[in-house]
């Protein structure tokens, strides 16, 4: 099958992170089984989701792993001009949710698997398709935990996030946090008898912005990134129950996206100190509090320019200049947790990810197919 045809099947499964991915996983397992390729599933213990791993080629050799996530972001609130879960071709572009991020790469990987099964391989081609990457690289961890015990881990890994087939050797890490601000309720006509949790949150947000300014001015810098410094960002805030009640509870979500050179734990510790200082400065410090908890995190990626995986992918694609990307991926986990040298390289543009009318150019699929065909030649 050709990649576009496989992609048409993949995007028809609405694998939004909050929902199951099992129908897609069963399609992939069936696709592989029809070609004599066994697959191993890693089910989620609490939800109807699973990772899939497959190997084509000799078991006694370490192979090249192609890794991709099966989940996509929601389409609610977006003005799509096409059905987001039906592949639509228009002007050389293939529109659908996940077309670029990143079912296009998975389609190319499955096409490569079909061709790998029909030829003798000297080194194996390996596949890993995960769930819940979009909510913090959560799902792949069960596969990686098992991989820690393997006698032969992959020799290297290509994570096919959309980079227009440029070789990304580094990306930032991410730490997601929730700040729970607690005060004391009171009637709004006598606000001094209460502790306004929204005010606590507001003061803490001010501290977050101060930390961001410090990072811009004094923190590590890497001009290889569009934002050359570590960033802090507050994304959501929720508090209060009624206008005439001093709110006793407020929550906000924030994130750290750290350069590889910046230790995120130290920054989280500084934010916890800021939270404690804000609570202590309130009118009733014994009753005010801001608790900061980590909800998700994944490490940064930094692969040396001269690593074999970088040289290999550059040779396969013809893109000799490596890049660094601000978005995260599972590559940092493969690299840091199991020591598998990794890069990010896939078809399509990250500019299309998470937006209405997401698309991938048909030419990008063809170029990715050519890259993986060249990889099969090297593995044969």
Number of helices: 9
Structural class label: alpha+beta
Q: What sort of overall outline do the alpha carbons produce when their principal axes are compared?
A: elongated
Strand-residue proportion:
15-25%
Flag low-confidence runs: none
In whole angstroms, the N-to-C terminal distance is: 20 Å
- CATH top level of the largest domain? Alpha Beta
The major pleated sheet works out as: 6 strands, mixed
CATH topology of the largest domain: Aminopeptidase
Assign the CATH architecture of the largest domain. Answer: 3-Layer(aba) Sandwich
Share of helix, binned: 25-40%
Estimate the mean pLDDT confidence: 96
Order of helices and strands: HHEEEEEHEHEEEEHEEEHEEHEHEEH
Q: Name the strands of the widest sheet in spatial order.
A: 1-2-6-3-7-17
Number of domains: 2
Short description:
The chain is α+β, with helices and mostly antiparallel strands.
